[in-house]
Amino acid sequence: MIVATTLIGLLIGGAAAVLTKPTYTSMTQLFVSIQNSGSVQELQQGNTFSQARVQSYVKTVSSPVVLQPAIDALGLQTSSEELAGRVKASTDLNTVLIDISVADNSPVQAAAIADAVANSLIKAINSLEKPTTGGSSPVSLSIIKPAKAPEAPSAPNTRLDLGLGLLVGVLFGVGLAVVRTLLDNKIRGEVDLRRVTDAPLLGGISFDQDATRKPLLTQSAPQSPRAESFRQLRTNLQFANVSGRAKTVLMTSSVPGEGKTTTATNLAIALAQGGHTVCLVDADLRRPMVGDYLGLDRNAGLTTALIGAADVNDLLQPWGDDELYVLTSGEIPPNPSELLGSDEMKQLILRLEHAFDTVVIDAPPLLPVTDAAVLSQHVSGVVLVVGSQKLSQQDVEKSLGALNMVGANLLGIVLNRLPTKGPDAYAYTNYSYDSKGPSRLSGKRSGADSGHALEQAAADYDSADSTDFIRQFPDATSPRTMSEQLSKFGAGDRYIKP
């Protein structure tokens, strides 16, 4: 913003310099003297008298008495009032010198007008100072510096115009940026989120241009920053649910367009890739999108099970090579809130919890409709997806208030659509990957980072060379030792090759 306003200021300053018609200024100088006999005392008195009268002569220059004769002498097509705006007279303190400057579009005419005004002033002062009793005027004005046609224009001053444009542009941009910062209440990163709530930040998903065309985790490179974001979300969610009671996770947002469906779908995929048996339920009965993302039929699904038209076992659709099953929305009903808050929905969730390790439910946004708040009473935990640069702090406060009012268990918040650069960026810059083998770390490893690398390497163990794997993790030379190390980071024996 500051750069933009600075460039605009320079552009305006340059345009003003180019479009302004050149103006030339010519100046003449007069000397005021008193007629006397030449004695020292008379000279002193005459000098004091001249200095006292000079200020009055300066003001007389812009009067019609002086300007109109100059206009008539030169035959100018202008009035004395208009010419007065281009004629300036001045004098220095304690001097008897009068400077007359004239501005005009023609340098020759500027000099001619200056000389004509000077001659007219001499005649006017001689007439005004002449004694009423007769005789000559005691005051004499003489031109000591005739006017000359200037070679260069006095205006426009290109450097001055550009400098002023630059200064005004910078100041305006800084002021605008400060005002915008003070008035901006959007959630742009974790700093803004912490002004609203102290709820745990489970993860951050960076904005990806390709996510619109390829929203699924399986459509990204296995070791891309986007894939790592959802793996971290999976791990943090497991640590947030230390007691293991929250088997059903409700994913919601404040308003549409924050990426809750994409986050819920990719979280379910990440959990399934981690060895969990996962059920993904599309409970957004107003704008269901899970079926479209996964390419599944949504004509029969959740609503079909709730009205008792079919058993849920017949409605679950497997997806991918892992233990991921999807219950699509089914036909959109006229009463979504009543269906989601019904006892049938509660019993359905209990059945799914007994059959799966984790149940991920995609629910409608909190603020437009009450579906998510009603459904949150039947689940073990709620995850709120917050879209960066899309949501205001007041909206987040309202959403948290709605969940708190119904006594929902908020597991944490996921920041979505974060910038890839800047102070609010959320990216994995400490890792470099080798596409030919297991993941490798560059730089120092912290305990948590080493655990993450160990978990990832173990997950890829089936397709990795065992010698290369043992070289990277020398302590994991036996399934028993490997299992003990993985247990420190919340991983299970599911990663161990039989």
Describe the protein's architecture and organization.
The protein folds into three domains: 21-145, Alpha-Beta Plaits; 190-429, 3-Layer(aba) Sandwich (Rossmann fold); 436-498, no CATH class. The chain is of the alpha/beta class. The two termini are 59 Å apart. Helix 3 (64-74) packs across helix 5. It is built from 19 helices and 14 strands. Helix content is 44%, strand content 16%. The strands form three sheets. It has an eight-stranded mixed beta sheet with strand order 5-12-11-6-10-7-9-8, sandwiched between helices. The protein has helices at 2-19, 40-60, 64-74, 80-84, 107-128, 158-183, 190-194, 225-240, 260-273, 290-294, 302-306, 312-315, 336-340, 343-355, 371-375, 393-405, 447-459, 466-472, 479-487; strands at 24-34, 87-90, 97-104, 139-145, 201-206, 248-253, 278-282, 317-319, 324-327, 358-362, 381-387, 410-418, 431-432, 440-441.
Write the layout of secondary structure elements.
Blueprint: H1 2-19, E1 24-34, H2 40-60, H3 64-74, H4 80-84, E2 87-90, E3 97-104, H5 107-128, E4 139-145, H6 158-183, H7 190-194, E5 201-206, H8 225-240, E6 248-253, H9 260-273, E7 278-282, H10 290-294, H11 302-306, H12 312-315, E8 317-319, E9 324-327, H13 336-340, H14 343-355, E10 358-362, H15 371-375, E11 381-387, H16 393-405, E12 410-418, E13 431-432, E14 440-441, H17 447-459, H18 466-472, H19 479-487
Parallel strand pairs: 5-12, 6-10, 6-11, 7-9, 7-10, 11-12
Antiparallel strand pairs: 1-3, 1-4, 2-3, 8-9, 13-14
Helix pairs in contact: 1-6, 3-5, 8-9
